[in-house]
């Protein structure tokens, strides 16, 4: 066992991109969960993702296996037993949640996004803004992944300005609400069982949340074609045409955009963790290629310029992972703020772009082949760079916090 492996508690925990052994900060139980997920990803996900990515198809057969990992409910203190019963447990630490997001994205960003939409955005909306009865009604099935969730906020004409530009409406009629409008870029929407839809109440102008079944009359989801990134994710454009939702399915604690923003604060950090995973995946693929590819009579890894690329990549990964570990500590302590997650997302995704570009460059012409993995990471990074708040918007969130002056318009 190497000295570094001894320090971190075992060689099987070490990833090539985790130079300072940050994973060793996890408890023994948390490490076991990460290793279980790592094994599943290596054995069942990695062999099929390039083919599914190229065909823009989601591997639905993996959902059942995902469910068996029993990780969907962990942030909310829910665990599924062998008998299928959901029991309450200690909620997972933010550090564990982060490393799981990293682990998924290290193999494939689309799979990480699918899971992040279901667990982070959809389950998170119910957990943070639902009533106790609503949490009991929906979260256990979602923890078992018997019901897959989606999150519908972005609209065709409103992305970064969604807080003020949301056009989808909700109109109260007795014990029901009538939803009308369109949403765009909604992950999982073509096959989700439950879609959290955010709409503006025509009576008071406030944004409210509603849980809409995927088979509700008046609800249609059309797959968005011809994407260059996250091709496995089934993003859709949604149309809501007089969709009726009972008052019981309106998220009781969602009374304004501030509540929506609380969900986004939680998931924004998850995207930053995923971005570290994308960096690691690209770095590992580039490192593997450099150690086996011969050029000019020797391995690529023996050239100074190639080593420079690899070390710069590792430096960006290490600094980004260290930032995320600290953010998780702030979250676990309950002292994190919106500007913490915003800075992390802006900084880490910017570094991610640099890392995947270096990886693609290192592979030369072979870097544009999906078969070598790097091209997939390179393309998918563009989506992570933009969603959950662009760099510019997150920069303005942090700028407002440090200056006291908003500069959004």
UniProtKB/TrEMBL annotation:
Q: Would the keyword Cell wall biogenesis/degradation turn up in this protein's UniProt record?
A: no
Which positions fall inside the Acyl-CoA dehydrogenase/oxidase C-terminal domain? 255-402
- Which parts of the sequence belong to the Acyl-CoA dehydrogenase/oxidase N-terminal domain? 27-146
Q: Which GO terms describe its biological process?
A: fatty acid beta-oxidation
Record-level Gene Ontology MF annotations: acyl-CoA dehydrogenase activity; flavin adenine dinucleotide binding
PANTHER family documented for this protein: ACYL-COA DEHYDROGENASE (PTHR43188:SF1), ACYL-COENZYME A OXIDASE (PTHR43188)
Its protein name is Glutaryl-CoA dehydrogenase
């Amino acid at each position: 066992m190497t000295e570094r492996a001894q320090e971190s508690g075992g060689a099987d925990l070490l990833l090539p991109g985790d130079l300072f052994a940050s994973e060793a900060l996890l408890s023994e139980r948390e490490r076991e969960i990460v290793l279980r997920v790592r094994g599943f990803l290596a054995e069942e996900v990695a062999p099929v993702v390039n083919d599914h990515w190229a065909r823009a198809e989601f591997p639905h057969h993996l959902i059942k296996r995902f469910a068996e990992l029993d990780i969907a409910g962990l942030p909310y203190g829910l665990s599924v037993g062998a008998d299928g019963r959901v029991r309450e447990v200690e909620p997972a630490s933010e550090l564990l949640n982060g490393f799981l997001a990293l682990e998924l994205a290290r193999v494939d960003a689309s799979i990480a996004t699918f899971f992040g939409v279901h667990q982070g955005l959809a389950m998170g909306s119910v957990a943070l803004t639902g009533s106790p009865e609503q949490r009991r009604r929906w979260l256990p099935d979602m923890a078992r992944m018997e019901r897959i969730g989606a999150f519908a906020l972005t609209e065709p004409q409103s992305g970064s300005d969604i807080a003020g530009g949301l056009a989808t409406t909700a109109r109260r009629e007795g014990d029901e609400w009538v939803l009308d409008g369109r949403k765009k870029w909604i992950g999982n929407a073509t096959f989700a069982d439950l879609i959290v839809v955010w709409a503006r109440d025509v009576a008071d102008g406030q944004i409210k949340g509603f849980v809409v079944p995927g088979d509700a009359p008046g609800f249609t989801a059309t797959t968005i074609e011809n994407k260059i990134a996250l091709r496995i994710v089934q993003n859709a454009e949604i149309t809501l045409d007089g969709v009726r939702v009972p008052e019981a399915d309106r998220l009781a604690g969602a009374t304004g955009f501030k509540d929506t923003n609380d969900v986004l604060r939680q998931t924004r950090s998850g995207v930053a963790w995923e971005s570290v995973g994308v960096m690691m995946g690209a770095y590992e693929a580039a490192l593997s290629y450099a150690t086996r590819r011969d050029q000019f009579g020797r391995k690529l890894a023996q050239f100074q310029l190639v080593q420079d690329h690899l070390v710069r990549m590792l430096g960006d990964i290490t600094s980004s992972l260290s930032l995320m570990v600290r953010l998780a500590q702030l979250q676990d302590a309950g002292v994190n703020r919106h500007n913490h997650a915003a800075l992390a997302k802006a900084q880490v995704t910017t570094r991610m772009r640099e890392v995947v570009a270096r990886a693609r460059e290192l592979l030369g012409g072979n870097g544009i082949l999906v078969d070598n993995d790097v091209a997939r990471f390179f393309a998918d990074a563009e989506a992570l760079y933009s969603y959950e708040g662009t760099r510019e918007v997150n920069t303005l969130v942090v700028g407002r916090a440090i200056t006291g002056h908003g500069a959004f318009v």
